[in-house]
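Workshop exercise sheet. Pairs work together: one partner reads the sequence aloud, the other fills in the structure field after running the prediction. Swap roles for the next sheet.
Pair: D.N. / O.F.
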Amino acid sequence: MYKVLLVDDEAAVLETLLDTVPWQQFGVEEILTAKNGIQALEQMQKQTIDLLITDIRMPNMDGLQLLEKVCELYPAARFIILSAYSDFDYARRALQLGAENYLLKPFQERELEETIETALNNIYADRKNTDQVFRDNIVRRWLENNITLEELGERCQLLDINIYLPRYCVACIRWKYQEGYLQSYQDRCMQQLKELKYEAYPIWDKFGYYTVIV
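Structure field:
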């Protein structure tokens, strides 16, 4: 689930964004609003914002100044620029800062929705990759007996890995066929173990084996 912050000094634009985008369909659980960059930063200090959609020209702190601050303070946040101005310098700076897209007002609903969907998919991919890297690191250290029992218990509770089963088996598989079939093979292994009611934690070990703790 995601939190989105809409920033624009025009109330009509905020209302349009709130009413026309199918937020729930995109997995957005909360939508916050702000009238300028200062209010937006105050909101971001209170809670984690996944996606920021902001106008460029606003009083007190404009959109580009806001994004510079966001990039410095909240680098994980994604953002989309809305503007009534087709100024190339604005667009170039927004893209340099990492904007998902630069949309001109009045924006096309379909283009806006597609941009939002893409941004949220990118957030999901980032989360998944981060979680997977952390999980792989813990499983590999467990496999190599390179982690204390205290840390293992703490980390596995966080990752929902059950280390308190009565027995384990470790299978080390050397894959000798074409690389293209590897992912489907791994998926079949995990699916069959799941159907047999086993808990399984796969990892590539430092010797190049596809290793599964079962």
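Discussion prompt: The first strand starts at residue 2 and ends at 7. What would you look at next?
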